[in-house]
């Protein structure tokens, strides 16, 4: 009989603990692939905030937050030792669950994700993240030097949960040199991944020798020019020179030519006038759908976002990489929600009818979903106004979400 459904995906570290325990204890938990842009209708009806993992029990219980789900599934086995023997051990378990999930894993994410292309890469930012994570690594190392496990001297859910979260480090950045510098943490992690509950679900773990290195996206190779035969070249003095081809446009949208109303005029209005009473009416009065188009821009991986200031930095990095399209683009993107439950949504006006030429100048443009808006529809017009004004909550998937931060591209 099915115990319930877990919305997430195999390989997601925050789903691993619950699924490993369920398999170990013989609980039939169905995994419904969710996240990374995939959100089934049944999931959205239960969890409109789009956070994973999420759990829907056969008895109707609705749970989100990875720690709550993991503890609930572990508690189904009345003989489990994963939750400690005393109240003190249980308190220690909660302490390490919280620390690993809310502190260490978030810091580690800022280190490894840019290296593998999951977040925008900035060399100084990655180096800073590595230094910042070391502060958390030293806490584990100091504690584990004198303790076999995290909560007392027996294996618990705190070890399993923390190991799944830190596995990203061991898979990507904790090479041989790092492990030699952190022997207690490495010994602990090796012990945990060889426990049957981990091994039977995730299989053998392979350590890396060297940390992954950032590899920039390959640039498209320009076609090689065909060699001109010497005899033909020698005839150039006897023949009229052919007209030289027109120089290649510096930007794909340059071919559209100047618009009747340059975006600069709108940008001045937006910068110098009150947004709702003056600037927005001016925009709608002068907006020409023949020359421009409107687009909703949504980040695809909201389930991976953590602190709101980090999400705002993500938008800032994206905007920096869009600078080549400044002449052809205007928009704003907001951070909605709160820490560990937030998302990115923006609205842009683009020269022409296709978003791609304006946005593909940024290497990470494919991390966003683009939806064309119709200014004649009241709901689309209202969305643009809300995302450019920032003076009231926005509606996301039918839910009102507070605007926490935002940035303007102009």
How would you portray this structure in words?
This protein has 410 residues and is an alpha+beta fold. The protein folds into 3 domains: 4-74, Glutaredoxin (3-Layer(aba) Sandwich); 87-202, Glutathione S-transferase Yfyf (Class Pi), Chain A, domain 2 (Up-down Bundle), CATH 1.20.1050; 257-409, Translation elongation factor EF1B, gamma chain, conserved domain (Alpha-Beta Plaits, 2-Layer Sandwich). 42% of the residues lie in helices and 16% in strands. The protein has helices spanning 13-24, 41-46, 66-74, 87-112, 123-145, 157-172, 176-181, 183-193, 196-202, 230-234, 263-272, 275-286, 308-320, 356-359, 378-389, and strands spanning 4-8, 29-33, 54-57, 62-64, 292-299, 329-338, 341-351, 368-373, 394-396, 399-401, 403-409. The strands form 3 sheets. The protein has a 5-stranded antiparallel sheet with strand order 8-5-7-6-11, with helices on both faces. A 4-stranded mixed sheet has the order 2-1-3-4, covered by helices on one side. It has a two-stranded antiparallel ribbon with strand order 9-10. A hairpin with a 2-residue loop joins strand 6 (329-338) and strand 7. Helix 1 (13-24) packs across helix 6, helix 1 (13-24) packs across helix 9 (196-202) and helix 5 (123-145) crosses helix 8 (183-193). The chain is elongated, with a radius of gyration of 27 Å. The termini are far apart. The model has no long low-confidence stretch (mean pLDDT 89).
